[in-house]
Known about the structure:
The chain has one domain (3-98). Helix content is 31%, strand content 14%. The chain has helices at 19-35, 45-53, 83-89, and strands at residues 3-7, 39-43, 62-64, 97-98.
Amino acid sequence: MNAFQTLRTKNRADFQIADFEIFTMILSALEWKKYNGAICLYTDTTGKEILERAGILEIWDSVNTALDEMDDLQIDENIFWAGSKIFALSKQNFPCVMIDLDFIAW
């Protein structure tokens, strides 16, 4: 079954992600692929650039920057923090699985 994850930075130049968070993202994606199938990452341009600099874009079967479109939606992401997940879900073919970056399927 295909899965997707989301990483939303709101295209903030000051966005930072800790090493342990990157390692968890990697483990989550790789374990999903090992036991279940393909996995895609939905992010924005800044998120893709961060992961590209880290040298880990190839972990996901595809990386989509569709979350850039959220900048124009006027959604208060401090209240609707799952908005990026719902937005990415609207772009999926079903059936699919939406998994958090820190979800690890053993």
